[in-house]
Specification:
mainly alpha; about 270 residues
Amino acid sequence: ISPAAILRDGAEIVQLLEHSNISVSLAALELLRRSPDAVLQQHGAAIVGKLNDYDDQVRQGALTVLMTSSTAALQHSAAIAKKLEDHATSTCLAALTALRISSDAVLQNGAAIVGKLDDPAVSVRQAALTTLEKSPDAVLQHGAAIVSKLDDPAVAVRQAALTTLGKSRGAVLQHCAAIISKLDDSAVVVQRAALMILRKSPAATLQHGAVIIRRLEHQDTRVREAALALLRVSPDAVLQHSTAIVHLLAHSDISVRRAALAVLMISPAAIL
């Protein structure tokens, strides 16, 4: 069915949402998912009504329809946010995805999203962080709660928390010490993520240059490359810690010697 036909027959399609056969309701939702924004605006209330359907698939289908339009997601964000407490994890995840469509919706419902950072399901905690990152203002506002996830038992959540903090320069500056502490995380991907978001804070790179330079000796190439990339944007840190970098030129590992040389070339004054 063409979008024009859906627009013309929108009211009839919406009536099928209440059909006794779930397959019919799901088919109607699928048609509405492909409909123009005008249909969603006109029949939004009926779609929102299906968020309380007894069937998980229908609730998720309604969320899928709403997430096709940032306007609809924002207009009905309060109703979508209530689905964060749905008993079905898949519905909760769909609600987070729907809110993610609109940065304003994320900001308006930040407290509800933050509440999911302590959900038992790793996927939900991770998705909540990914949703918050869509609004830098929400990241800054809820920075403390995000930082608490830097100690989450799940590596994916710790990594997501760092990525989310990196969406707000203000949050990076405010929680710099906590980010630096993750350079000692047990997971390489978390260490690398911490180095990557420190690019937003040259002052932190300068202040903690010695710690960052030690990462040039890390056994994992990904960490060494991330440290090198960070130092490339901070020639002042290279100059300040040039003695330690020069010392690495005598390292037994050739890859470390190469990394040290590459860093020294960033600041000619350091070589002198």
